[in-house]
Amino acid sequence: MKIFTLVLILLASALLIFNATRLNFNDLFAGESMYALIGIAASFCAILILLIFRMSKEIEKKMNE
Predict the structure, then answer these.
(1) Cα(57)–Cα(2) distance, rounded to whole angstroms?
(2) Please, which contacts does 57-61 make with residues 24 or more away whose CB atoms are closer than 8 Å?
(3) DSSP per-residue codes, 14-49
């Protein structure tokens, strides 16, 4: 499970970087930039959820010892 979450975090990070390259800072809230901002927010949320999941699994493991 640890490797699986790590792979998903890496994929979400790659999507975050890709979407950051799609931003147009002259017109940030229109066209492609808006989709890129949504993608960045979604990638950030996915990373955060996966990190919380990983921490909860570590806590669960320590509680069972």
Answers:
(1) 9
(2) 57/1, 57/2
(3) HHHHHHHHT--TTSTTSTHHHHHHHHHHHHHHHHHH
Please identify which residue in the block is written with the tokens 């979400």. Answer: 12
pLDDT value of position 1: 83
Phi-psi region of 17 (alpha: psi -120 to 50; beta: other; left: phi over 0): alpha
Q: Domain-by-domain residue ranges, the chain?
A: 2-64
Which residue type does 31 have?
G
- Report the largest interatomic distance among the alpha carbons of the chain, rounded to a whole angstrom: 55
Tell me how far apart the alpha carbons of residues 19 and 29 are, in angstroms, rounded to a whole number. Answer: 14
pTM over 0.90: no
- Work out the average pLDDT over 1-21: 95
Rounded distance between C-alpha atoms, residue 61 and residue 23, angstroms: 41
